[in-house]
Amino acid sequence: MARETLSLYDTTLRDGAQTHGVDFSLDDKLLIAEQLDKLGLDYVEAGYPGANPIDTELFSEDRKVGAKVTAFGMTKRPGRSISNDPGFQALLAAEADAICLVGKTWDFHVDVALGITLEENLAGIKESVETVVASGREALLDCEHFFDGYKANPDYALACAKTAYDAGARWVVLCDTNGGTLPEEVEAIVAEVVAHIPGDHVGIHVHNDTDNGVANSLAAVRAGARQIQGTLNGIGERCGNANLTSIIPTLLLKSGYADRFETKITPEKLTTLTHASRILDEMLNQAPDRHAPYVGEAAFAHKGGIHVSAVKKDPRTYEHVPPESVGNVRKLLVSNQGGRSNILAELESIGLTVSKDDPRVGRLVELVKEREAVGYAYEAAEASFELLARRMLETVPQFFDIDSFRVMVERRHNALGELVTISEATVKARIDGDSVMSVGEGNGPINALDNALRKDLGPYQSYIDDLKLVDYKVRILTGGTDAVTRVLVESRDGEGRRWFTVGVSPNIVDASFEALLDSINYKLIRDGAPAPS
């Protein structure tokens, strides 16, 4: 029997940006969109053009993403024509494949929030959707507070959804905006909706305020909805959104879903899920949830007693899916063999073919464990891992040596009498036997150190002229004034390639310098810089 198609819609960059403490830069959004595209999402809702400068800039050009880039905004404002509605015009001007309009479907909100009649709201939904369709983009209506509205006035909530569908909306998305609806309610209400609107035009978008975001999404699919909206790692306002990081592997790996539905996400793409989840956590400068289903560090960890013995004989005893199917790794916490297969897979991905019995692999596994125990995190710093592996498994050129560095921070009054802080760094290096000393100033000690380090690398300068440090994150791993610090540096070159490097030390400047050195050495190796004579 042919499987039905399920559409997956990610709103990490828009709804996820409502998370307390989250503030995406344009570069952050582009990197996350790239990860979501690699994973195989159908839609990436990238933001709200016109609402802020970052989102406006993001939609100012075609971002060449394989997924359908979607702009989010409101249906037309009451009492205004579409041509006289700046917010709606910003949507129409956006470089987007689809436009998702949020509209009121609860009669209470139409009366209190909009202050218009129910019929005027229906007319606004109709005109807004028709205008988007006429512009050549896919139209979606996010039916705000649909489940509350349906429970209060089912005929009107359904009329809003039906109006959007009749006007040409590709998807009518039923939103549980306050996250208070339970799975049995979702399943019953969605079943009523799909009796009037074809299920392959009905989506579900739930929040997680009762910790039922995943369950509610799956309940909607069972009832006939064929699009699921959510966010990576379930981030979002209040308690978050439905967690696509849990929903996606459930759809692909669990009977009842995998044998009935298909998505654009292949088994090969699914193996990038854990990586995408942890990249987002690092970007948000937060520790990954160790116990997150499927992708958490402890999701396939087994410790002591009969569990370890049973898993060694047959992993299915205590693992509901193979960890490698989602890009994770099994951890037998009493075994020194844990992690070998993961290391081998990483080596293969960077072009290093090594026999699994090569003793150097075992030493590399132990080295990674030792370094991670003191704070290194190679999951989100692939460039540092590649350098570590290459240095153990093959000859890596020593392009330059650092003899010493010094950083000074001075706070003083300038010639205008203003209180300013000046940072200056000096780096002494040896390149092919020659000594070089460079001085750099910057906006803070790390920026000054970065400028000094990359100011003059002699024969290698041309290789790093296009190298830019685009992001810098610090995490304190232990408490106290002598805390161990982990620094994650993101770099980019003129060809748009990006990579992450990591440094760890009780001294934040040392940790930063280590990450900066890795970044430069990785660039030199990647570009084939010649070894010194």
TrEMBL record:
Reactions the enzyme catalyzes: pyruvate + acetyl-CoA + H2O = (3R)-citramalate + CoA + H(+)
Pfam families: HCS_D2, HMGL-like, LeuA_dimer
Pathway: Amino-acid biosynthesis; L-isoleucine biosynthesis; 2-oxobutanoate from pyruvate: step 1/3
Coiled coil: none
Keyword Amino-acid biosynthesis: yes
Keywords carried by this UniProt record: Acyltransferase, Amino-acid biosynthesis, Branched-chain amino acid biosynthesis, Isoleucine biosynthesis, Transferase
PROSITE patterns associated with the record: AIPM_HOMOCIT_SYNTH_1 (PS00815), PYR_CT (PS50991)
Domain Pyruvate carboxyltransferase: 6-271
InterPro entries noted in UniProt: 2-isopropylmalate_synth_dimer, AIPM/Hcit_synth_CS, Aldolase_TIM, Citramal_synthase, LeuA/HCS_post-cat, LeuA_allosteric_dom_sf, PYR_CT
SMART domains: LeuA_dimer
GO biological process: isoleucine biosynthetic process; L-leucine biosynthetic process
Keyword Isomerase attributed: no
Taxonomy, superkingdom: Bacteria
Family: Belongs to the alpha-IPM synthase/homocitrate synthase family.
Protein name: Citramalate synthase
Species this protein is from: Methyloceanibacter caenitepidi
